[in-house]
Specification:
Blueprint (H helix, E strand, L loop, with lengths): L1 E7 L7 E7 L14 E2 L12 E4 L31 E8 L2 E6 L8 E6 L3 E7 L10 E4 L4 E4 L2 H4 L15 H8 L4 E3 L10 H15 L3 H14 L10 E3 L2 H11 L3 E3 L6 E3 L8
Parallel strand pairs: 3-4, 11-12
Antiparallel strand pairs: 1-2, 1-5, 4-10, 5-6, 6-9, 7-8, 9-10, 13-14
Helix pairs in contact: 3-5
């Protein structure tokens, strides 16, 4: 079975889908999904690769439509007046769900030329552009969600943004108030920008898994690679965004030394090996 449906915006909290067309292959399954890596905010994707989340049906942001047997008869046809309130597309194709986010600009009436048997100019026509690749792919049989950009699918899977969230003002201030940090140059939570707030959220999670001995080892490791952060009382002196970033990279253990040449390096991306 193949069916393209659209999730439309409404005032109700109930998710409402409308059927657009059936028996059409809208998206092709990428041939490189086997090379997908488990999602980790510290991992940057290579070109033409995907993130994956396994056992996706057990997570709270998995939609009910993905957990049950799909049937096109369950959905009413999309009214043309509803095109302007489409939230995203979902194409079901033989056990695989393909999702594409739809932006407001994508739904604005456009002037265009239709190239069929003859050229036809259409003024103020309503067109839904289909991307070459879906923003997310869910394979029902293996229970795996694939995607390349988390921000593109946060509107589709509500709550999934928690996988890479920013630390709140309170969490940022609390982190900077740790005993292993000594603030300098009037640096405070108000100076911390988005990138470091995301790193703080990760760092808090990492530190929560360490016992006291492991924390000591990590702090010693940071001192070895970032001697400029050491304060007079033994804590880390943080007086700028750059210094905070160095500390957070250290907590993630991104620093390493090459076995040949003993060159000190920083890992811009991390993939955990099994």
């Amino acid at each position: 079975m193949k069916c393209l449906i659209a999730k439309i915006k409404n005032r109700s909290r109930t998710i409402t889908y409308r059927k657009i067309i059936s028996d059409k292959t809208i998206y092709n399954k990428p041939n490189n999904l086997k090379a997908a890596v488990a999602y980790n905010p510290a991992t940057l994707l290579d070109e033409d690769t995907w993130y994956k989340i396994e056992n996706f049906s057990t997570m709270e942001y998995c939609q009910e439509i993905m957990k049950s047997e799909f049937s096109s008869v369950d959905y009413d046809r999309l009214d043309k007046r509803e095109i302007e309130i489409i939230d995203y597309l979902c194409s079901y194709q033989e056990g695989i769900f393909y999702f594409q986010n739809i932006s407001k600009s994508n739904l604005q009436p456009k002037n265009w030329i239709h190239m069929g048997d003859d050229y036809e100019y259409v003024e103020g026509g309503k067109v839904i552009n289909i991307n070459k690749n879906a923003d997310a792919i869910y394979v029902q049989e293996s229970d795996v969600l694939y995607f390349t950009n988390l921000s593109k699918i946060t509107g589709i899977f509500k709550g999934i943004s928690e996988l890479y969230r920013e630390a709140t003002d309170e969490e940022t201030a609390s982190f900077l108030n740790n005993s292993f940090i000594e603030l300098a140059n009037d640096f405070s939570a108000s100076n911390v920008k988005t990138a470091n707030r995301k790193r703080i959220a990760l760092a808090v999670d990492v530190l929560s898994k360490f016992n006291s001995n492991e924390k000591k080892k990590v702090f010693k490791y940071i001192n070895e690679y970032c001697p400029n952060l050491k304060s007079q009382n033994g804590s880390f002196s943080i007086g700028s965004e750059e210094e905070l970033k160095q500390l957070l990279w250290g907590i993630e253990q991104r620093y390493y030394t090459t076995p040949v040449g003993k060159e000190k390096r920083l890992a811009n991306s991390i993939i955990t090996l099994n």
